[in-house]
Amino acid sequence: MPDYDAIIIGSGAGGLSAALRVARAGFSVLVLEAMPAFGGYLNPFSQKGYTFDTGVHFIGKLGQGESFWRMLHGLGIEDSVKFIELHPDGFDRYVFPHFELRLCKGKERFVERLVTQFPKEERGIRKFFKVFDKITEAMGASQLMRGRALGMLRFILKHPAMVKYSRVPYQRLLDEVTSDKRLQAALAAPSSLYGLPPARASVFTAIGVWDHYLTGGHYPLGGSGAFRDAFIDALRKHGAELKSRSRVVSIDKRGNEFVVETESGDPKTARIVISKADPVITLGKLVNSEILPSGIRRKAERLRPSEGVFYAFIGTDLDLPSLGITDANITHFEDYDINKMYGVFLAPTPPSGFPVFFITSPSVKDPFCGKAPEGYHTIEILTGANYAVFEKWANLPSRKRGEAYEALKENMGERLIAAAERYIPGLSQHLDFVEYATPLSSEYWVNAVRGGSYGPEQTPDQIGPGRFMSFTAGIDGLFLAGSGTLGGGVMACVASGFLAGRKATRYLES
Ligand SMILES: Cc1cc2nc3c(=O)[nH]c(=O)nc-3n(C[C@H](O)[C@H](O)[C@H](O)COP(=O)(O)OP(=O)(O)OC[C@H]3O[C@@H](n4cnc5c(N)ncnc54)[C@H](O)[C@@H]3O)c2cc1C
User: What is the pLDDT, as a whole number, of residue 156?
Assistant: First the structure.
């Protein structure tokens, strides 16, 4: 008799939702988390009276009845966490050298906004949104697809846009609709939300992100930790066991039972395993290679990770609202050529500048939940970062990487803060708290492969069948969830756990 029905590895968004889906069906569940705290990128950190989010700035599709809300409803936690709706007229600001575009709630309203800002490009804009409609319709239909070859053939005939854009980068679509470089830049402005320039991003990812946020932006009241806690409370209510400081080091199968071992030994057995650890780690390092089909192993080995980020987490006594900082995120672009700018800040050498960076203030978005001491605010400034810049310190323990690493972080951080002063004047003179994080921090805290922000990078060859979108890995009873399956982003990861958990539940019931 195995110890548990299900062992879930990793407590990120995908792991938590998979665990909850299975626990709600009445099965016994053990969640094993490597770090002292649960949540992965949902886990905030607190220091000196400030609380910072590490992987949640805004989330879409959360209005009552919308798809993410329905998923939370399906998990029974839609009322356990409240979401603050960010200003619907402009919750994500894209600031270019000569104009600013504000993402608003509602596709039609946003189209009109674009047409007003680019009147000569109206045809291109409308053409873009025609393709957008076809792709979003096809993406919705693909979730309902039943049957195998015949179903697939019908789907392809009905949705030719899915085939047309499946292998090409987003830049190809931009070139098709307009040659205006400013409009192209505007249509690629949310690129930091998938960490890829249009020359490399999948069309489906770029369109999917627009679609996600055109329903409006939301932020969890109390921050990402409150969202994480809604899952944890529900899991405990349903009898699940959660263990932190339990890094899984091996997964094996003996007969019909899985044997999962952690760093501290003490193997546990289960009928099924759902792993949220990246597929490169799960299939390349944890699963006994003798039980893994070689084709699956090769597929995992080929996966390239997404790019990482460099963060500055700041506590300040500046009165941010009086300086014009609102609940909207700001993405700064020094130029219109987003492909070229990614080449600069993602170079494998310390960056000479920060042509693209992102600013957000959790304490302005959520002034009610004590994210900063009275009279103070939190700010997070982020930019993309190449793991190679920090790689030589990768094998040293966190906080003991030495002076050269600290000096590099200081240098990059100070320049990033100086660049952000165009939006927050005087910031460098008002730093009450500063902490910098690099892709090594994400590697340490979340076990992200090469510190990647969004799992495997979301290029055309690594989306859909190029990932592990079936949530399976060729071993009966082993399931995958998290950003290595459907893609990065909180909603995609919760959806992956929901769907992997559903598959696992059916398997357990069969
Ligand atoms: C800077 C940044 C900003 C972001 N902003 C947003 C945003 O505004 N909106 C949005 O929707 N998305 C955002 N995202 C993306 C989103 O946060 C992630 O895609 C999502 O949370 C990842 O969930 P996951 O299920 O893949 O798990 P992860 O968060 O990757 O967590 C994995 C967990 O598994 C654990 N683990 C790994 N290996 C093992 C092992 N061997 N044994 C035990 N435990 C293990 C890790 O310790 C970790 O806790 C952002 C990401 C980043 C980096």
Answer: 80
Predicted pLDDT at 144: 61
Closest by alpha carbon to 139, among 172, 165, 158, 162? 162
10-residue block means of pLDDT along the chain (510 residues)?
97 98 98 98 97 97 96 97 97 98 98 98 98 94 68 81 94 98 98 96 98 98 97 98 98 97 95 98 97 96 96 98 98 97 92 95 94 96 97 93 97 98 98 98 97 97 94 97 97 98 97
- State if residue 276 touches ligand 1 by the CB under 6 angstroms criterion: yes
- pLDDT score, position 153: 79
- Chain length of the chain: 510
> What does the pLDDT read at residue 146?
58
Is 247 a pocket residue for ligand 1 (Cβ < 6 Å)? Answer: yes
Task: Give start and end residues of each alpha helix (H) in 46-106.
Answer: 67-74
Do 111 and 206 share a domain, yes or no? yes
Domain-located, residue 80: no
Distance, CA 58 to ligand 1 centroid (Å)? 14
pLDDT of residue 141: 81
Looking at residue 88, its pLDDT comes to 98
Dist. CA 426 → ligand 1 center (Å): 33
> Is 139 a member of any domain?
yes
214 CA → ligand 1 middle, Å: 23
Contact 185, 165 (CB under 8 A): no
Reported as a single tens digit per residue, the pLDDT across 377-387 is 999 999 999 99
CA–CA separation, 301 and 200 (whole Å): 20
Q: Choose the residue to mutate in 490, 496, 498, 499 for probing ligand 1, maximizing ligand atoms within 8 Å of C-beta.
A: 490
Cα 65 to averaged position of ligand 1 atoms, centre (Å): 25
Could you tell me if the CB of 9 is within 6 A of ligand 1?
yes
Question: Which CATH number do you get for residue 406?
Answer: 3.90.660
Nearest to 31 by CA among 262, 222, 250, 226: 262
14 Cβ inside 6 Å of ligand 1: yes
Judge residue 409's burial from the number of C-beta atoms within 10 Å of its C-beta, 0-12 exposed, 13-18 middle, 19 or more buried: buried
483 C-alpha to ligand 1 centroid (Å):
7
CA of 507 to the centre of ligand 1 (A): 26
Torsion sign, CA atoms 366, 372, 376, 377 = negative
In single-letter form, the type of residue at position 227 comes to F
State residue 94's pLDDT score. Answer: 98
124 lines ligand 1 (CB under 6 A): no
Same domain, 388 and 254: no
Q: Provide the domain limits for residue 132.
A: 87-216+305-455
Q: Give me the number of domains the chain comprises.
A: 2
The pLDDT of residue 125 is: 98
**Same domain for 103 and 126:** yes
Choose the final residue of a domain: 428, 455, 482: 455
Using the 3D structure, point to which of 411, 428, 455 is the last residue of a domain.
455
